[in-house]
Each structure stands twice: as structure tokens, then as C-alpha cells.
Specification:
The chain is mainly alpha-helical and 292 residues long. It has one domain. Strands 1-3-2 form a 3-stranded mixed sheet. Helix 3 packs across helix 5 and helix 5 packs across helix 8. The relative contact order is 0.13. Bound molecules: zinc ion. Zinc ion binds next to helix 5 and helix 8.
Length: 292
């Protein structure tokens, strides 16, 4: 037997496809892989977050609050508002909501009020709920306020906040492993924006609506007025010329769907859709306009 070096065929290293097509194909594949990776991290982190006991969630929020206090970055866990009539009223109403939802220590809400003119409200880690003046001043009656509070409180009670932060943290850790990390200060800023812009899934929002409606019924004996909260969103979407509406809307189910599902679940539960509405305190607008 005789061995000899055979020359390879001409052009074996040249792909059959056009090089640009090949490049596009690889780019798309890389983007899809990255997206899948982020989705996977988000879902795994979310599941883990939901398994964490509420006491641990409280502890984490406290440690973060300490870190914010030391760094001078504004903390989403502390409010600057002093004890005013408005805060007293909201706190007392919040207690009624907690009772109606069956929430008890250690799972209680730390309610904050911000006098910023932002049309928003949010719940985050450790049972912290923030209500903004910009949204409160538009509320037509107490029933809508209770629906709003009960919705945010439900995110705490149903562990959506822990799941949301768990998912967000997993993605953040994944991103930090990539080159281009930032210092402690930068990290605190990103934590701050993570905890105050939690992205809840649509199913979480629907779940929170249903839970909140139960509280409205417990307190007033009917669910009239609850849907007016979503009516407000319709109105504000209409005037949002810059498209800068808060995250509050982007993940929430369509307003019309929400209003529809409220009537549907009220009928299923046998809850009255009609009933007299309770007004907000006479000085409510004045309280909102007073400086803190
Ligand atoms: Zn929500």
C-alpha cells in the first residue's frame, strides 16, 4: 500500500450561501439565544423569589434601605412624608383593606405617599406600597381608592413583588456577568429602578384585580365604583401625547377587559354591582395640595 497527500478539492472552505446571508443568520441566532437566556433567567428567578419566606423579603428590603441611606441615593423603601391628616386617612383605610384581604403580621403594608404629580402607584419588595398625588387627585370616590390600594396590596399578599424582584435580579446578575459592570453607586441606582419598576405579568395583574375586588366587596357590601379606577386609565391614555405613560399601564391588561372581568367575577360570586358610593373626605383635595 502506498500513501500519498491528495490535494483537497477546490473551494471546500467557501460556504454555499452568500456571506451576508450567513452573517444575518448568525446574528439572528445570537439575538434569539440571548432573549431565551433572559426569559429563562427571569422565569427561574421569579420562581425562586416566590419561594422565599416573607420575613426574608422584609430583611432584604431593610438591608437595601440601609444601603440607600448610606449612599445618599433616594430609597424606594422610605418616605419623606410627615404625619399629616392625609397620611392618617390613607393609613386607616389601608388597615381596613388589609383586614378585608386577610393580611396579618408579618405581612403588612408599609404605605408611602409621594406628592409628585405622577399618575401612578406601585408595590415593591418588603410590602412597600407608594401612592402618587398625580393619581390620587383624579379619584372620583373612596371606592375607587380602595380598589387601587387593594390591587397594590394584593401584589404584596400574592408574593408578586418577590417573584418580580427575583426575576429581575436573576436577569441583572446575568447582565452583570457580561463585561462593562458599574460601581456600587451605579448598582444601587439600578436596584432602585428595578424595585420601583417591577414588571408584573398580565396573569398577576388579573389575579390582583380579582383579589382586590373581593376586598371592595368586603368593605362596602357591593363592588360599585371599582371599575371607575380603570375608567380613569382610559381617560389618561387618551391625553398621553408624549407616550410617556408610566409602566403601570404597559403590563396591565386592557382596561376594557379589566372592566369586563370585574362584572363577570362579581356576577359569579353573587356580589352586587350596584350600591351607594362613599365619598372621599371633604378636605381630600386640600390635603393633596398642601405642602408636606
Ligand atoms: Zn398591578
Amino acid at each position: 500500500m502506498k500513501y500519498y497527500n491528495r490535494l483537497p478539492k477546490e473551494g471546500v472552505n467557501t460556504p454555499q450561501r452568500h456571506p451576508l446571508t450567513e452573517f444575518l443568520r448568525l446574528t439572528v441566532a445570537a439575538i434569539v439565544a440571548l432573549l431565551l437566556f433572559v426569559l429563562l433567567l427571569n422565569s427561574a428567578g421569579g420562581r425562586l423569589g416566590g419561594l422565599i419566606p416573607f420575613r426574608v423579603e422584609l430583611w432584604v428590603a431593610q438591608r437595601l434601605d440601609d444601603a440607600f441611606a448610606q449612599s445618599g441615593v433616594e430609597s424606594p423603601f422610605s418616605s419623606r412624608a410627615s404625619e399629616t391628616e392625609l397620611i392618617r386617612y390613607l393609613t386607616q383605610l389601608g388597615r381596613q383593606v388589609e383586614q378585608a384581604l386577610g393580611m396579618s403580621a408579618p405581612m403588612v403594608v408599609k404605605l408611602h405617599y409621594s406628592d409628585e404629580d405622577t399618575f401612578n402607584a406601585y408595590a415593591t419588595l418588603g410590602g412597600h406600597v407608594t401612592l402618587y398625588k398625580g393619581l390620587l387627585k383624579e379619584l372620583p370616590h373612596e371606592n375607587a381608592l380602595v380598589m387601587l390600594m387593594a390591587h397594590e396590596y394584593s401584589h404584596v399578599q400574592l408574593r408578586h413583588t418577590a417573584r418580580g424582584v427575583g426575576g429581575g435580579l436573576a436577569v441583572a446578575v446575568g447582565a452583570a456577568l457580561l463585561p462593562g459592570g458599574s460601581g456600587v453607586e451605579g448598582r444601587l441606582y439600578s436596584i432602585s429602578s428595578l424595585v420601583s419598576n417591577l414588571n408584573f405579568s398580565r396573569s398577576m395583574e388579573t389575579e390582583a384585580d380579582q383579589n382586590a375586588l373581593h376586598a371592595v366587596h368586603q368593605i362596602y357590601g357591593h363592588v360599585n365604583g371599582a371599575a371607575d379606577l380603570f375608567g380613569l386609565f382610559v381617560k389618561f391614555r387618551g391625553v398621553d401625547k408624549d407616550g410617556k405613560l408610566d409602566r403601570f399601564f404597559s403590563t396591565h391588561p386592557l382596561d376594557a377587559q379589566r372592566i369586563g372581568s370585574i362584572s363577570q367575577s362579581a356576577m359569579e360570586q353573587g356580589w352586587a354591582l350596584e350600591g351607594s358610593l362613599t365619598g372621599l373626605p371633604a378636605d381630600f383635595q386640600q390635603w393633596l395640595n398642601a405642602t408636606r
